[in-house]
Each structure stands twice: as structure tokens, then as C-alpha cells.
Task: inverse folding
């Protein structure tokens, strides 16, 4: 992932160049086509997704319960605990996403606790 790309993402706004450089080492950018299943309800979660571009549908028991777009995130429970996914997420358009796996998040918690806490705060706000 490039630092300049991360700097444009509102979720990471306010981070220093050094923090962004470190974060870039722990994240990947992926492109997916419309219809791609990003997360499957009932499977174990091990990654966190942040939507840069495009939209995704959130399905629970086969019913659409939400639509996510740029700046939204999902899979956050995979960062906090190894739990089964509570919903499926399917790309409703072509998408660009930033992905961080649980192992990298744990490393970030050790090396950049302020950034990890920022992500945890956003997750807590979303879950409440």
C-alpha cells in the first residue's frame, strides 16, 4: 500500500507521515469485481476491510440489511477476536478496498498503540 493512498482515506486522517508509512506495511489494497463475496456469514473472521471506492451489500440470513460505501468498514470483529462472521458482504459494484489481517493488527497494537486505539474506538462506536 502506498502512503499517499492511505493519507487520502478519512479513516486514517491526522496520522503522521511516519505512522502512515508504518501502516502501509501492514495493509494491502485489493480490487474486486461486482458480485465478489468478501465475507461469508458463519465463517471465521481474520481480516478487516475498509472501502475506498464502490459499494457492498450486507446480507444476514440471505436478506439485505445494509449497504456500505466509501469510508465504511467491515470485518472488524476479526481484528478483535476470532469469531464467526455475523453477516455476508458482497460487492454490489467493482470495488477498491484496504485490507488488514489480524496478525498485522496485533503487530500494530504492539508498535503503534495510538493507531490501534483509534481503530478500536471507531469499532466500539459502530457496535454501540
Result:
Amino acid at each position: 500500500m502506498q502512503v499517499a493512498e492511505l493519507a487520502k482515506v478519512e479513516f486514517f486522517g491526522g496520522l503522521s507521515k511516519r505512522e502512515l508509512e508504518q501502516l502501509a506495511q501492514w495493509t494491502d489494497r485489493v480490487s474486486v469485481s461486482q458480485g465478489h463475496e468478501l465475507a461469508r456469514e458463519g465463517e471465521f473472521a481474520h481480516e478487516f476491510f475498509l472501502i475506498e471506492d464502490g459499494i457492498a451489500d450486507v446480507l444476514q440470513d440471505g436478506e439485505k440489511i445494509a449497504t456500505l460505501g466509501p469510508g465504511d468498514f467491515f470485518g472488524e470483529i476479526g481484528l478483535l477476536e476470532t469469531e464467526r462472521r455475523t453477516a455476508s458482504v458482497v460487492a454490489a459494484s467493482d470495488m477498491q478496498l484496504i485490507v488488514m489481517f489480524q496478525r498485522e493488527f496485533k503487530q500494530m497494537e504492539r508498535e503503534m498503540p495510538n493507531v490501534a486505539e483509534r481503530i478500536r474506538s471507531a469499532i466500539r462506536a459502530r457496535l454501540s
In short: The beta strands are 28-32, 37-39, 47-53, 56-60, 63-68, 73-74, 88-91, 95-101.
